[in-house]
Amino acid sequence: xxxxxxxxxxxxxxxxxxxxxxxxxxxxxxxxxxxxxxxxxxxxxxxxxxxxxxxxxxxxxxxxxxxxxxxxxxxxxxxxxxxxxxxxxxxxxxxxxxxxxxxxxxxxxxxxxxxxxxxxxxxxxxxxxxxxxxxxxxxxxxxxxxxxxxxxxxxxxxxxxxxxxxxxxxxxxxxxxxxxxxxxxxxxxxxxxxxxxxxxxxxxxxxxxxxxxxxxxxxxxxxxxxxxxxxxxxxxxxxxxxxxxxxxxxxxxxxxxxxxxxxxxxxxxxxxxxxxxxxxxxxxxxxxxxxxxxxxxxxxxxxxxxxxxxxxxxxxxxxxxxxxxxxxxxxxxxxxxxxxxxxxxxxxxxxxxxxxxxxxxxxxxxxxxxxxxxxxxxxxxxxxxxxxxxxxxxxxxxxxxxxxx
Length: 405
What we know:
By secondary structure, this protein is an alpha/beta fold. Helix content is 40%, strand content 15%. The two termini are 17 Å apart.
C-alpha cells in the first residue's frame, strides 16, 4: 500500500470514508469529549481524561503532537497504547488506505479503532488543527469544549479571529453540551454562541476550581489552574451526558500526574534546572514567561516558520538573559539566523545561534551558573528534541517529511 500522505486534502471526506471501511469505530467509543482551542487544549484534555478515569470509567485520550513517543498520542486509562496494539491497528488502517489518508488521519483512525475495541466509556479527543475540517471531527462529540481563541495558524484558519472561531465552532454538534473558556474575545464568542444556539446546545463556562486543585498542580505552572477548572467542568458535562455520578473532589486528586509532557516540565541538566515548555504562540508565551516573576533564565528557542517570529523571539529576548536560537527536527522549523535578524539591534546582541538542539543546550549550560535556570521554549517539536537529547536519543516525528505531489 502507498504510505500515508503528508499533504492529503484538508477535508473530512477521506477520514469519513476510511472509518466507514473500518466499521464505524467513531460511533462505538463511548461519549466523546471533543476539545479544541488555541492554547491549553492538550493540558485540558489530559486533565479531563484523568478526571473521568478517577471515577472508575474506562477513558481513551487522543492528543497531538507527541513529545517523547508517537504512542503517547493514543492513551487508555493513563497508559500509552502498547506497541503491538499500535502496530496491529496501524497495519489494519493501512490495509484499507489507498494512499489518500494523511499521517494524522491515519493516527486518528488508529485511535478510534483502539478505543472502540477496548470499549471506552469516554473518549477525550483533541482536535489537531481548528476543528471543522479536522480529522477528529468525524466523531460526534457529546461535549464540545473550546478553551480559547487567539491568533495562530491564520494561513489555515483565518482570516482573523472570527475565521479561527468559525473553524473551532465546527466541532459543535446538534444537542451537544458546549463549554467555552473564559477569555474568548467578544466577536469570536458571539460567533460560537450563535452556532450553539442554531444547534440547540447549552453553552456553559468553567466553575471556580476547588482549592485542593492548586496543591495537586503545584510546580506545573499557574496557567494550569485555568486548564484544570476548564477540564473539571468538561469532564462533569461528559459524565452528565451518560448519567453517571461525577465527584470533583475525587477528580482533583488525579491532577498531580495528569499534565502532558513538555508543559512546564522540569528536568536536570549538567547541574542546571531545565524547564521545557512547548509554548508557541503569543498567548502561551505570555503565560509561560509570567511564571518566572522577573527571573531571567538563559533560553533555548526554536520556532515553526509559520509563527510570528519577531514577536515570539522578541518576547523571549526581552525576558531572558541570553537567547540561543536553533532549529528543531521538524522540516517546518524556522532558520535561526533569519529569526535573529528580525530582532532589534539591542536584543540581537543577546541572541546566539546554535547548529543543533544538543549544541544549544550545551551552550546554555555554559552560560548558566550551577543551580541556575535554563528555559527551552518555542515549539513542541523543540520540547521533544530537548527531552530526547537529555535521554541520549533522537526525536521521532514521522509524517513530518513533506511529500512531493
